[in-house]
Amino acid sequence: MDLIRWEPRRRLVRSLFDDLFDIAQSPRSFRSGWLESGRWEPAVDIIDSDDKLIVKVELPGVEKEDVKLSLSENNLTIQGEIKRDEEIKKENYYCCERAYGKYARTIPLPVEVDREKVNAKFKNGIIEITMPKKPEVQPKEIDIEVAD
User: Fold this and answer.
1) Confidence band (pLDDT; 50, 70, 90) for 6?
2) For the chain, how many structural domains are there in total?
3) pTM to 2 decimals?
């Protein structure tokens, strides 16, 4: 029986090289927001603090009027439409990668939120949605008494 030398670095380098090759072959699916199906979804950050959830949604080039937010059951849905620029009829149009059309993204929330106090602000292509947690879901500090 022969012994085979274990080389963890070689395996790591090969794995990284394979990943880079996959990205080079299909850069569109690697781009932020693009799904393998060719659909686009807005990128989000979700921050969970003690008393609230904050969701930041990246919607570059989208107007406030073209976005709809809804909260049903325990899901936040962001939907809307990115309108296509007027068609350019020039022979030297080289590339067209910007997304346009309808989009929707539903995010399951990890805790229940107080629907009546949800707030959304739109600035510089970022929507920040603040959702206070219901009081029964918020952590409660318990005092410890000294026993006699």
Assistant:
1) low
2) 2
3) 0.65
